[in-house]
Amino acid sequence: MAPTKERLHSLMHLFIACLLKLSTAAPCLPDQASSLLQLKASFFIGDSLPSWQAGTDCCHHWEGVTCDVAFGRVISLDLGEFDLMSSRLDPALFNLTSLRNLSLAFNDFRGASLPASGFERLTDIIHLNLSYTYFFGQIPIGIACLKNLVTIDLSSNYGLYFERPSFKTFMANMSNLRELYIDQVDLCSSGSTWSTVLADSVPQLQVLSLFKCYISGPIHPSFSRLRSLTTINLGYNMFEGHFPTKIFQLKSLRTLDLSANPMLSVRLTHFPAGNNLETLNLAGTNFSCDMPSSFGNLEHLKNLGLNTMDIDDKLSALISKLPSLDDLQLMGPDTKNPILSWVSNITQLTHLMFDGYDFSKSIPTWIGKLTWLEGLIIVDCSFSMPIPYQIGNLTRLADLVFWNCDFFEQRMPSWIGNLTKLVSFSIHDCNFSGPIPSTIGNLIQLEELVVWSSHISGETMSRLLSS
Predict the structure, then answer these.
(1) Is the pLDDT of residue 231 over 90?
(2) Spatial CB neighbours of 376, under 8 Å, sequence gap ≥ 6
(3) CB crowding 243-279: b at 16 or more within 10 Å, else e
(4) How far apart are the C-alpha atoms of 309 and 295, rounded to whole Å?
(5) How many other C-beta atoms lie within 10 A of the C-beta of residue 231?
(6) Contact at 8 Å (CB) between 182 and 205?
(7) What is the rounded CA–CA span in Å between residue 287 and residue 228?
(8) Quick one: pLDDT at residue 24?
(9) What domains sit in the chain, N to C, each tagged with a CATH number?
(10) From its phi and psi, is residue 191 left (phi > 0), alpha (psi between -120 and 50) or beta?
(11) pTM above 0.85, yes or no
C-alpha cells in the first residue's frame, strides 16, 4: 500500500528534525580529540583505529566514541574487542573527565600495571569494563573513588589483586553498584569477610560474579541480606561449610552457579512457586535436597548442573519433566555409577555435558534419542566398550568435545562423517589410535579441529592439519 500524503509529511518532518539536530550538535572539543589521539598512539598493532584522524570530528566520525550533543565532550569510549595492543594505559585517557562509559575489554595490555592514579578523575563514570585486558598487579585506589559506578567488570585479569586498597576499602563507597564481575581476580586475601563486605557496602547488588577468585573458608550468613540478587556465580573456589539456604527463596534469582566447590554443603530446602531461576549449577558440591518435589517449580530452568550420585529416581523423574530445560551438565561420582538412561526423556536438550563418568559397564545407546543436541562435551570419562554409534545420529551437532577420555586405543569411528553440521571438533588426551577416517571429509562446515595427545595418523589427518 502506498504511503498517504499525511504519512509522507510526517516522515519529511522527522527527517528535517534529524538534520537540524545533527547540524546543531557541538563538534568535538580540541582537547578531547588531542587526548584520544594520544591514546591511539599508545597502541602498536598496524593502523589501529583508522577512523581516528586529526582534523576530523571525533564526535561524529570516530569509531567507539560518543559525545554529548551540547558541549562536544566524550561521554562514552567503547573499544571493546578492537584487538588493540599496548604495554601501558596512557594517562591521556584520564583527561576525558566527562566519561560515563569506558570499555577496553578484550584488548591486550601485555601484563602492564593499571596506573596508580588517574581513575579518580573520572567522577561521572557509571560503567567500567576492563575485562580480558591482561592487566597485572594492584587494583588502584582511584577506582574505589568512583561513587557513581553501577557496573564494574574486571574479569579474567589473572594477575590483578586487592591489597592496598583491600577489598573492604575498595567497596566502601560503592553504594550505587548493581553489577560486580571480578572473575579470576585474586580475592584470597579477603578471607571469609567478602560476603559481609558486600552485604554492608552494596545492599542493592543484583549481579555478583566471583568465578575462580581463590576464595576459601565459609560463606557468612550475612550474604543472605543481598535480597536483590539476580545472578550469583561463585564457581571454582574453595568454599567450606554451608551455603545460606535463604538465597533459594529469592524470587528475583535467575542464575546460581556454585559448581566445583567440593567442600561446600548445599542443602536445598525448597524452591518457591513462581521463582524465575534459569540456571542452577551445583555440580561438584556436597548437595542434598530435603524437598525434591519443589524441583517441579522450576518452570523457567534452562541450565542445570548436578552430581549424578545426587539424582535418585524421584528427582530424575522431576528433572525429565522440566519444560524449559535445554542444557544439562552431569558430573560423575568416584564411588557408584547410577544409570543415566533417564536423560533420554529430556528430548528438547540442545547441550549435554558428562564429566567424570564411567561408561565402561553401560554404553549410552540412549543418547541417539536426543536429536536436538547441538553441543556434546564428554570430559574425564571412560569407554572400554565402543563409543556408541548412536552419536552419529545427532545430525544437529555443531560442537563435539572429547577431553581426557580413555578410549583404550579405539579407532575414531567412521560415523563421525555423519555430523555434517559440526563447526568445532576437539579431541584432547583421549587415547585414540590408528588412522583418522576418510569420512571426516564430509564435515564441510568444520571451522575448528583440535587434536592433542592422541595417536591418530594417516593421510587424511595430514591433509587436515596442513589445510
Answers:
(1) yes
(2) 351, 352, 353, 391, 394, 397, 399, 400, 401
(3) bbeebbebeebbbbbbbbbeebebebeebeeebebbb
(4) 17
(5) 19
(6) no
(7) 24
(8) 61
(9) 334-467 (3.80.10.10)
(10) left
(11) yes
- The x, y and z cell numbers of residue 22, run together, are 545533527
* pLDDT tens by residue, 2-25: 555 555 555 555 554 444 444 567
**Type of residue found at 13:** H
Predicted confidence (pLDDT) per residue in 53-88, tens digit: 999 999 999 999 999 999 999 999 999 999 999 999
What is the pairing mode between strands 351-355 and 327-331? Answer: parallel
Distances (CA, A) of 394 to 176, 336, 344, 389, 436: 48, 28, 13, 10, 20
Residue pLDDT, tens place only, 160-169: 999 888 999 9
Report the C-alpha gap between 151 and 68 in whole angstroms.
21
Q: What is the pLDDT of residue 456?
A: 65
Buried b (16+ CB within 10 A) or exposed e, 193-209: bbbbbbbebbeebbbbb
Residue written as cell 579518580? 120
Interatomic CA distance for residues 226 and 323, integer angstroms: 29
- CB distance 149 to 123 below 8 Å: no
The CA distance from 171 to 166, in Å, is 9
The predicted structure's pLDDT at residue 383:
80
User: In the chain, what percentage of residues exceed pLDDT 70?
Assistant: 90
